[in-house]
Amino acid sequence: MVAVVTKRYQILQYVSWMEPVGRRSLADQMHVSERIMRTDIDFLRQQGLLDSSKSGVVLTARGRDVFTSMDQFMNEMLGVQDSEKQLAERLGIDHVLIVPGDADQSARVLDDMGTALAQTMQVMLPLGEQIIAVMGGTTLARAASRMNFQLSAGRELTFVPARGGVGETVAIQANSVAAAMAQSTGGTYRVLYIPENVSEETYQPLLNEPSVKEVLALIDKSSVVIHSVGEALAMAERRRMSDDILQLLRDHHAVAEAFGTFFDAAGNVVYKIPKIGLRIKDLDQIPYVFAIAGGQSKAQAIQAYMQHAPKQTWLITDAGAAQSILMG
């Protein structure tokens, strides 16, 4: 997939240098057949990034904006590609993007990871209807502010919370993140109001509520998932979990949390919060899965969770976490 992103960026780059340019000239420049180039140009034209005439292929106004916004990002991405390949291989997933810096040292790095997420989605997501299931958390709340209306051009975006409500600050709950992403992109959103830390006997009747059933049906149809990976004890404390659960997590040396599941460093499941919505095993059937987490302090958590992540996962992280994992 990284190769696909790179190729599409390079097509935009060559067109910006040579426009109007013929399809055969582009194919020669990129050392591919004219048939393959036609397929790529057709895709970019459907995205509204290129236009064709008798004179040749040119960038549209939107294509110029997208190319400009991608330029610095792609230069950085191509510069660290070796590290990304090494990290992807180490974690057993197909895709890794690394942004410079360490989120532990500067919150600005969270914004850069959010920008990388938005740009990757812009290039990779098909046109048409896309249901995007999102988790909560500070990282995703920051990522929401980096999205823009370009993502919804040619796409009908619906954002839904991936799981029921959690005991966090309202601004970073999944419902709030879904709403913020919808506002940033011009999409729509749905909310799922399910209380945290209730018994199965309590939440089972909620499954029959029409509003809950509607959102759960959308979650089941989601084609995109965006989530983060948290440090186990920090997540448990932020969710105000009981002292007994906190002690259990300490006793079992939990280091990571994702989708309400806590893991030790070896990837063993330590504890699960009974919740409604997506589970980790559901991710195998979802085409586009984006995990965004950074900072050296999250390196161990990322490694623990990635033992359960589906292979098609895109991990968007920073140099602080990446170097810690690769040198560990």
TrEMBL record:
InterPro entries according to UniProt: CggR_N, NagB/RpiA_transferase-like, SorC_transcr_regulators, Sugar-bd_dom_put, WH-like_DNA-bd_sf, WH_DNA-bd_sf
All copies of domain Sugar-binding, residue ranges: 79-326
Pfam families from the UniProt entry: CggR_N, Sugar-bind
Domain CggR N-terminal DNA binding, residue spans: 4-74
SUPFAM superfamilies on file: NagB/RpiA/CoA transferase-like, Winged helix' DNA-binding domain
Highest rank taxon of the organism: Bacteria
Keywords assigned: DNA-binding, Transcription, Transcription regulation
Any GO MF annotation of the entry: carbohydrate binding
Tagged with keyword Transport: no
Family, as annotated: Belongs to the SorC transcriptional regulatory family.
Protein name: Central glycolyticproteinregulator
